[in-house]
Design a protein that fits this description.
Shape: globular
Catalytic activity: glucuronate acceptor + UDP-alpha-D-glucuronate = acceptor beta-D-glucuronoside + UDP + H(+)
GO molecular function: glucuronosyltransferase activity
Number of domains: 3
Radius of gyration: 28 Å
CATH class of the largest domain: Alpha Beta
Number of helices: 22
Strand order of the largest sheet: 3-2-1-4-5-6-7
Helix content: 40-55%
Main location: membrane
Largest sheet: 7 strands, parallel
Family: Belongs to the UDP-glycosyltransferase family.
Structural class: alpha/beta
Number of strands: 13
CATH superfamily of the largest domain: Glycogen Phosphorylase B
Distance between the termini: 120 Å
CATH architecture of the largest domain: 3-Layer(aba) Sandwich
Strand content: 5-15%
InterPro entries: UDP-glycosyltransferase (IPR050271), UDP_glucos_trans (IPR002213)
């Protein structure tokens, strides 16, 4: 037995198990699901993962856990006083109405993000008052911490714990606000910013708006980061680094993006694309629909799923747009429509026989079913990734935030159609969009082609997460990977000083030549006069 063990110890690769902290504030399901998937991926590999969940919004706590395999989950509840204040206010209701009724652009984006800033700063203060949580985490002696840079409260927390090896993990394609501080470029002339409403082919005004909305949202988030930094320095001491330095000191930056799927852009070597990590096609393909769903899908030759996600609910959609959808639905009697609707009150649609309302839907199971013809979605990144990997034609109607960018990303592969939400009360425009994604075979063909490409891509997101995390845990941190561009001023970064000197030299040469010619002309004129 000893000989077998001795030999196997050389034959089987020895993995250094890590103690990993994944910091995941509970405020939106898509963010929690992404970070939860990272935690589960590392847990399945055998690492010791602690999943720390500071609750931001108590109403969303149940849907914002995110993990399925990881067992060491520490939930830090919101204080009772904050819960009671939340229940007595209609702020959440009001912001949902704002999201539906406004078009987020550079003129209002900073104001729209104010609610988020206030919630995150309050949550940071609530979380950092829990000294017992800090002491508990300190005993675990973490090797690596993984955090999302939508907040810097966690960065201050893990720095106070003494964790030097950190990994940033963006559940979005990227966050504009952090790029200058990690030294990564963003060219606004052809790369849509995180909250851009256009694609890569932009007019002059669209390029300007692309830059402006990025700037406005970055200002809002930087202000929030400053507030969080003030809080973590108050709790742990003024010696803690500035949030800008904490961002740049991260060893790896995971982004929920795929180079085949997303708009091409320049990235640092330490930025690792893991888009699609939440999509488990083996699991999706093994899922079975219940008999109730089979009955609904068998009623007509065509079926369409309608869902606007979990954050922005259909119940808050303006009535004129609901009626616009109903008019189109009634005009297509050979199509069954399944609408994920969060309320039992939908009397506005009484009498429509080809429409079914449901509070919950097994989205991936239905998307992967051949009987579903098309999907009407809000364009959340989670749903967008599911559409791309499953290969289903889609009509994307974004509501706010990064959904416009996601819609344009999906539409560029010609398996989906982008439609502005204000078009929902235009019967002709909306119906034409429905007809295209339901009956134009080119959309289905292009959607399947994209799914096939993603299925056979050379990079595996799960392997990337495991290998990079283990590499950081064993060899990190990597300050040598930080580009020096972070320390250059505007003149140095954009060669303005070099161009200035070059132009000055050219001007001096021109002046010199002009002076020489003037002198020569004067000399010859004087000589000519003397000769005469």
């Amino acid at each position: 037995m000893f000989h077998i063990f001795f030999i196997s110890s050389f034959l089987i690769p020895q993995v250094h198990l890590l103690n990993v902290l994944v910091y995941s504030p509970a405020f939106a399901a898509s963010h929690s699901n992404f970070l939860g998937k990272l935690a589960d991926t590392l847990t399945e590999k055998g690492h010791n993962v602690t999943y720390l969940v500071p609750v931001v919004n108590q109403l969303k706590q149940k849907e914002c856990i995110g993990v399925k395999v990881t067992k060491d989950v520490v939930i830090v509840d919101v204080p009772l006083r904050t819960v009671l204040e939340k229940e007595n206010k209609t702020a959440d209701e009001e912001i949902l109405d704002v999201w539906w009724n406004s078009q987020m652009d550079s003129s209002n984006s900073r104001a729209i993000f104010q609610w988020f800033s206030n919630e995150m700063k309050t949550a940071c203060n609530n979380f950092l008052t829990r000294r017992d949580i800090f002491e508990e985490m300190k005993t675990k002696r973490f090797d690596v911490a993984i955090l999302e840079p939508i907040s810097v409260c966690g960065l201050g927390f893990v720095n106070a714990l003494g964790i030097e090896k950190t990994i940033l993990a963006s559940s979005s394609t990227f966050y504009d606000v952090i790029l200058p501080y990690i030294g990564e470029p963003l060219d606004y002339s052809y790369v849509p910013s995180g909250y851009s409403i256009t694609g890569e082919d932009m007019s002059l005004s669209e390029r300007f708006e692309n830059w402006m909305i990025s700037r406005e949202i970055s200002i809002a988030l930087e202000d929030m980061f400053d507030g969080e930094m003030e809080t973590y320095r108050k709790r742990f001491g003024g010696h803690l680094p500035n949030w800008k330095d904490l961002l740049s000191s991260s060893s790896i930056h995971f982004v929920n993006s795929n180079p085949i799927f997303d708009f091409p852009r320049l990235m640092l070597e330490k930025t690792v694309s893991i888009g699609g990590i939440s999509i488990d096609m083996e699991s999706i393909e093994s899922q079975k629909l219940s008999e109730d769903w089979n009955i609904i899908l068998n009623q007509r030759p065509y079926n369409m799923l309608i869902s606007f996600g979990t954050l922005v609910t259909s119940t808050h959609m303006p009535m004129k747009w609901k009626n616009g959808l109903l008019d189109v639905i009634k005009s297509m009697s050979n199509v069954t429509f399944i609408w994920k609707y969060e309320s039992d009150e939908h009397s506005f649609a009484d009498g429509i026989s080809n429409l079914y309302f449901t509070k919950w839907v097994p989205q991936t199971s239905i998307l992967n079913n051949d009987r579903l013809t098309a999907f009407l979605t809000h364009g959340g990144l989670g749903s967008t990734m599911e559409i791309a990997h499953i290969g289903k034609p889609a009509l994307v109607i974004p509501v706010f935030a990064d959904q416009n960018r996601n819609a344009n990303t999906l539409a560029r592969h010609k398996g989906a159609l982008y439609l502005h939400k204000t078009s929902m009360d235009n019967f002709k425009t909306l119906r034409n969009a429905f007809v295209k994604v339901l009956f134009d075979e080119s959309y289905a063909r292009n959607a399947r082609k994209l799914a096939e490409v993603l299925k056979n891509q050379p990079n595996n997101p799960k392997e990337s997460v495991i290998k990079n995390t283990e590499f950081v845990g064993k060899h990190g941190p990597f300050p040598q990977m930080n580009p020096h561009v972070r320390h250059l001023n505007f003149l140095q970064k954009y060669f303005v000083d070099v161009y200035f000197i070059f132009v000055l030299c050219v001007l001096l040469v021109i002046v010199f030549i002009f002076a020489v010619f003037s002198k020569a002309k004067t000399f010859f004129n004087v000589r000519k006069i003397k000769i005469n």
